[in-house]
Amino acid sequence: MTTPLAIAMGDSAGIGPEITAKAWNARELHSLAPFFAVGDPRAVQKVWDGPIALISDPAEAEAAFADALPIVSVGDAGDVTPGTPDVDGARCALQSLEMACGLTRSGAASALVTGPVSKALLYRIGFTYPGQTEFVAERCGVAG
Questions:
Q1: For residue 144, what pLDDT band results from cuts at 50, 70 and 90?
Q2: Where are the alpha helices (DSSP H) in 31-86?
Q3: Residue 7 in 3-state DSSP?
Q4: Order of strands across the sheet with 112-114?
Q5: Please, what is the average pLDDT of the chain?
Q6: Rounded Cα gap, residues 98 and 24, in angstroms
């Protein structure tokens, strides 16, 4: 059994949910390693009608990966309108990043992939890092 990749989907109203779904669709064509998404599954459902498997543990991702996009549900992005980011989506994106980072640090995921976010909206909810990279570095104990 391999340890799956974690994808923090980014802004629920952005392109992260769609990119994540398209990556899952291309899993066989490109021989992609198993992965799971972390975020609000409703954001994916707004832009894609493919199969989703809600999982509570990353260890479930590999078994689900062949048949559905595994998603660990995090937060509530509110009423997601694709193309219209808002602060609820920013809160969900930050919760997703925090969880995906923690799962990767704990070894439950082999690596972390980050989806696009609206930095302006993250700053509105109190995010103080220049970007996701610096946030992840701090969570991993890497000096600036």
A1: low
A2: 41-47, 61-65
A3: strand
A4: 52-55, 69-73, 35-39, 5-8, 112-114
A5: 94
A6: 22
